[in-house]
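User:
I study polymers; will you set down one protein's sequence and backbone structure tokens?

Assistant:
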Amino acid sequence: MERICKRCQAHFIVHKDEEDFLQKIGFKYGKTEVHLPLPVYCPDCRCQLRTCHRNERNMYKVRSSFSGKDIISVYAQEQSWGDKPFKIYSQEEWRSDAWDPMEYGRNFDFTRPFFDQFAELQQQVPRQALISISNENSGFTTGTGFCKNCYLINSSEYCEDCYYGKLLQTCKDSVDCSYLYNSELCYECFSCYECYNCQYVSFSTNCSDCMFSSNLKSCTNCCLCTNLSQKEYHFMNEPLSKEEYEKRLKDFRGSYPLTEKMRNLYRKTIGTMVRKYANIVSCQNCTGDYVEHSKNCLDCYDVNESEDCRYVQVGVQVKDNYDCSNMYIKPELCYETLGTIEVYGSAYCLFIFHSKRMLYCDFCYHSEDCFACTGLTHKKHCIFNKQYSKEEYEALVPKIIAHMQLTGEWGLYFPSRYAPFGYNESLAFEYFPLSKEEALKQGFLWRDSDAKDRKPQTAAFPDSIADAADSITQEIFCCSDCSKNFRIIPQELDFYRRQALPIPRKCQECRHTDRMHFRNPRRLWNRTCAKCREAVQSTSAPDRPETIYCESCYIKTVY
């Protein structure tokens, strides 16, 4: 079924499997069963409107609304909308028995729009400063679980001694990496699996002691190489003796100017290499990019061990999810939801954990059968944080949905005008970059940085890691790209010394932006294999310079 997006006017298709899914995810209220409506926005707009509610990388020092103490928060002190700031509690305060979210319960007003009323509730109910579960000594992380001694990482689980990264899963002692899985001692790596002691490596699996390379499989001691399998001591894809290889590497280790020269060679090398149409491995009937060990996942990105999904961005063990983002550990039958762990049968939700049959809820834990609630734990049959009997709940929810249908709100995600972050703070900015003028024109919020808070650099960058004294951790540096201040923490300095790496001259945000240039947009184009002309779907646009092969031709050519 072809439709026109009510937001951007683009034509888009509602596929038969989407229609079937929306019928499958019905919500029962007594004898009434409610099904979700067909989308009125295109997939890109749905993703953009959803992810503008998630901040992964910006943190602020604010005062706790509970204790008055200084805490670290993903929410700035000044809220991006409304006349009052959010109430922000530390995680310990939020999870304590010192306050009750039910005290903020209220009746639904059928004379007013739903989203306006829910925004007022969100403004009153305290929010957690950060989102994390069972971490140890990892107070400057968000979207993390079961991590130890980590700093400024996000969307990560089961990591130890990792700094400045995104989507790290079961990793150890790694710095400035993104989409890194089951790896150790890695630096500036992107989309790597089961790698050890690698630096500036991308799209590689089961490699060790490799540098400035891409698309390697089971390789050791390779530098400036691409598309190799089971090779050792290769430089620019040419075999060398161990002695000659080590001599080539010795000259630039620890030197910033020479490392930058190697990085420039690296960029040129990967710019001309043959590429597989998509990063899809061990999958059946899947499209998108960075999909592993999955089945029937269509137009999905950064998804593994999942099945029967469409339009999912970042998912681990996901089943029957459509239009969802950042879904972890067996979420099932969810629609238009962001940020979950073990959730079932829920829609239009934000940050709900271990819960069932939730609609239009955010920050709820271990709850079920709730509608338009925020901040609840171990609750059932609640509406706007007010407790109802089962019979009352089942009678009232369909009436509110009917009201939302009349106001045109039913089936839409939380509006961007009520997002808790500026667009430039949000995940949407990474997925769909916009200027301030473009963002404001499209109805998003924006947060301007305060340049007066920036301080002058207090020391020169050392060219060699050997010249970096311990006192460097007390200095203030200015990013060579954006001029923002940043520091080198002691654990980071120790890592650079052990790995013979120079001190970076860009802040962690600009380093992250550089890594994101490795990946294509989360969008599919119809392409043909440059060798056999077979039709494929790729995230490489037709006007890009890469040579694209289908999987069969890629394997025959490379391996």
